[in-house]
Amino acid sequence: MGIKYSQTHKVAFYESDTRGKMRISDILAVALQTSGEQSYTLNRSDTWVYDNFNLFWAVVEYEIHLYKLPEFNEVITIETEATSYNKFFCYRDFIFKDDSGEILVKISSTWVLMNKDTRKIERVVDEIVAPYEAPKVSKIIRPHKYLAVSEEASCNLAFPVRFSDLDMNGHVNNARYFDWAVDQLDYDFRMTYEPKKIYIRYNHELLYGNHEFIQPVFEFQGNTSCHIIRKDGVDNANIEIVWSKISEED
């Protein structure tokens, strides 16, 4: 395992939903910010990677376990470490804890390095990842196998790809995909159920374009909602969310 890095974070009003729980998209955003700050302390910031290799980091998969959602004004600790890497993939974990040390959220993530000009995945450069001290392995972690979505899957809404959706790498911020998916679900459902496990796979970059719209489709299979973020017939991302009914204690 690699070098661990941690920081505290107070859940802000703008990160909280109508139930006072931290939004999933903000959990992902804070996780990415935490890994970015570790990279900066190791002299491997996004700017350094770009200036020296014309590359940037991109997440291609998340596995998220939600034991208890952080709440508004709660002070939490986020721990992260690069766990291993191989020729093309780097693996990193994030652990969110409350002030007593109880685990609230665990995120396992898979990353790649992409060329800024060609937008193609490139081999992992040892010089870039060496300071994290994660072991180099030959094994590729087997990705989650997503449920098939039928041709009758619903598409309730279409969303524009806005300039404000883009991050510094020029593509849609990866937390935005989750919001597109769950915005298909109605208010009563969201007030009654909350996610317990989430899988996200990014298949293709979504870039900005005038009058560009994505059309997410979804269907339920038991207590799992299966989502595809689709544009012009291309499946840009797959998302699966396992839901649990909210208890009165929550």
Description:
It is a single chain. A hairpin with a 5-residue loop joins β5 (103-115) and β6. The protein is of the alpha+beta class and 250 residues long. The radius of gyration is 18 Å and the shape is globular. The mean pLDDT is 94. Strands 1, 2, 3, 4, 5, 6, 8, 10, 11 and 12 form a ten-stranded antiparallel β-sheet that branches. A two-stranded antiparallel ribbon has the order 7-9. The longest helix has 18 residues, at 24-41. It has five helices and twelve strands.
Compact description:
With 250 residues, the protein is of the alpha+beta class. The chain has helices at residues 24-41, 46-53, 126-129, 174-182, 187-192, and strands at 4-10, 55-66, 75-85, 90-97, 103-115, 121-122, 159-160, 193-202, 213-214, 217-221, 224-231, 234-245. Strand 11 (224-231) and strand 12 form a beta hairpin.
List the helices and strands and how they pair.
Blueprint (H helix, E strand, L loop, with lengths): L3 E7 L13 H18 L4 H8 L1 E12 L8 E11 L4 E8 L5 E13 L5 E2 L3 H4 L29 E2 L13 H9 L4 H6 E10 L10 E2 L2 E5 L2 E8 L2 E12 L5
Antiparallel strand pairs: 1-3, 2-5, 2-8, 3-4, 4-5, 5-6, 7-9, 8-12, 10-11, 11-12
Helix pairs in contact: 1-4
InterPro entries: Acyl-ACP_TE_C (IPR049427), Acyl-ACP_thioesterase_NHD (IPR002864), FATA/B (IPR045023), HotDog_dom_sf (IPR029069)
Protein name: Acyl-[acyl-carrier-protein] thioesterase
Keywords: Fatty acid biosynthesis, Fatty acid metabolism, Hydrolase, Lipid biosynthesis, Lipid metabolism, Transit peptide
